[in-house]
Write a structure and sequence with these properties.
By secondary structure, the chain is α/β, with parallel strands linked by helices. Helix content is 44%, strand content 19%. It folds into three domains: 10-56 and 163-321, 3-Layer(aba) Sandwich (Rossmann fold); 59-148, Rossmann fold, CATH 3.40.50.1100; 327-412, Alpha-Beta Plaits, CATH 3.30.70.260.
Length: 415
């Protein structure tokens, strides 16, 4: 089936909803009072991170694979993905008994490779990026007579993703607007098609990572600039969908860009304020609200939390960096005479001030220090900015030369 051989309309999305009912999770839509207060708007979170594979991609995969003929199922399928599409395809291929090969870029984190293999798919690593992987996947398609499952240039995939929109407006029919992450565009194209057909007055806004503005550039006919490492790797697409672009151009009211610090803040806020784990792409919709609170103040907003497949180490790093930005984790450099008892006096001052020492590093080997001196780099957990200032003031009052360092500059700072 070619990418244009089936219509994407409300009827197709309703057909998909009926077909995949019971196969995917009708994910909850929740409102979190603390998050609403933080954002200054009424936010309704459509939690696609609750899907079987932690992402909305399960919807499109379920809708596509169900249509394959017995011969096609016997031949097998191939897809290229660095994460969520891979797991969605592998999950339903395993359930339907379809041999699946997933081509992933060589730098793909091992945890994503392992999860895809655990779902029964054969993983082949090829190329440095997804574009390289796709070229190789098409070679396998031809050589082994496999069915290629595209992540967004397929009307059945788009219709499957659109079922999330039907569920959202059924749960919250009085929404003012819906904010949806954009990578290749399958999710927002499906949702926009469903929602605009049923409630054309609802505004739909797409959000891209600022480093990967592929869809907005394509629509505005600007040269592509997508590049770099983004926390929102799930929407880090260099070439937007051919099938989805005209739908987005016709039905989506605006596309906004969210930078990396705001994406980090959104992941952190989801975890800290809403107690929800979201990957960078999944939190991008909240990022759009946090980046421009005046625009969204007081509005009734549906947010697509598109996925929760974030590496645990990366999540830990984001949360710790958030503590550092808030002044709840500080690094202080203290010059001491390198003799017995000096460290004990410093730690006593910090403890008496209510600080919790996380780490201490002695710096003794630099030539700009006396042989009888040492720098201490001390990481301290505090209650916030004013408490951090109080701890440093206490050290200075006790006669120590104490300087607060930024975490970025800490390792390179010199006296």
């Amino acid at each position: 089936m070619t990418e244009t051989s089936k219509t994407i309309d409300l009827a197709a999305i309703r057909d998909a909803a009926a077909a995949i009912h019971g196969q995917v999770i009708a994910t909850p839509t929740l409102t979190i009072p603390r998050l609403n207060e933080h954002a200054g708007a009424r936010l309704h979170l459509k939690l696609e991170n609750f899907q079987h594979t932690g992402s909305f991609k399960a919807r499109g995969a379920a809708n596509k694979l169900r249509t394959l003929s017995p011969d096609a199922r016997a031949s097998g399928i191939v897809a290229c993905s660095a994460g969520n599409h891979a797991q969605g395809v592998a999950y339903f291929a395993q359930r339907l008994g379809i041999p699946a090969t997933i081509v992933m870029p060589i730098p793909t984190p091992f945890t994503k490779i392992e999860r895809t293999q655990a779902l029964g798919a054969k993983v082949e690593l090829h190329g440095e990026n997804l574009s390289d992987s796709e070229v190789y996947a098409h070679k396998l398609e031809q050589r082994k007579n496999l069915i290629f499952i595209h992540p967004y240039n397929d009307p059945l995939i788009v219709a499957g993703q659109g079922t999330a929109g039907l569920e959202l407006i059924a749960s919250v029919p009085d929404l003012d607007l819906i904010i949806v992450p954009i990578g290749g565009g399958g999710l927002i194209a499906g949702i926009a098609t469903a929602v605009k057909a049923l409630q054309p007055g609802i505004e739909i806004i797409g959000v891209e990572a600022a480093l990967y503005p592929s869809m907005s550039e394509a629509i505005d006919q600007r040269p592509p600039t997508a590049h770099g490492a983004t926390l929102a790797d799930g929407i880090a697409v260099k070439v937007p969908g051919r099938l989805t672009r005209p739908i987005i151009e016709a039905l989506v009211d605006d596309i906004v860009l969210v930078d990396e610090p705001t994406l980090e803040l959104a992941v952190q806020t989801m975890a800290d304020t809403a107690r929800i784990v979201a990957e960078g792409a999944g939190a991008a919709s909240l990022g759009a609200v946090l980046a421009d609170p005046t625009r969204f103040k007081g509005r009734n907003i549906g947010l697509l939390v598109s996925g929760g497949n974030i590496d645990r180490r990366l999540l830990a790093s984001v949360l710790l960096r958030g503590l550092a930005r808030e002044g709840r984790m500080i690094r202080v450099r203290v010059l001491i005479d390198d003799r017995p008892g000096a460290l004990a006096r410093i730690t006593a001052q910090i403890a008496d001030a209510g600080g919790d020492i996380v780490e201490i590093i002695h710096q003794r080997l630099f030539f700009d220090l006396s042989a009888k001196q040492a720098d201490l780099d001390i990481v301290i957990e505090t209650r916030g900015g004013s408490h951090a200032d109080e701890i440093i003031a206490r050290l200075v009052k006790a006669g120590f030369q104490a300087t607060r360092l930024s975490f970025r500059a800490a390792d390179n700072a010199s006296r």
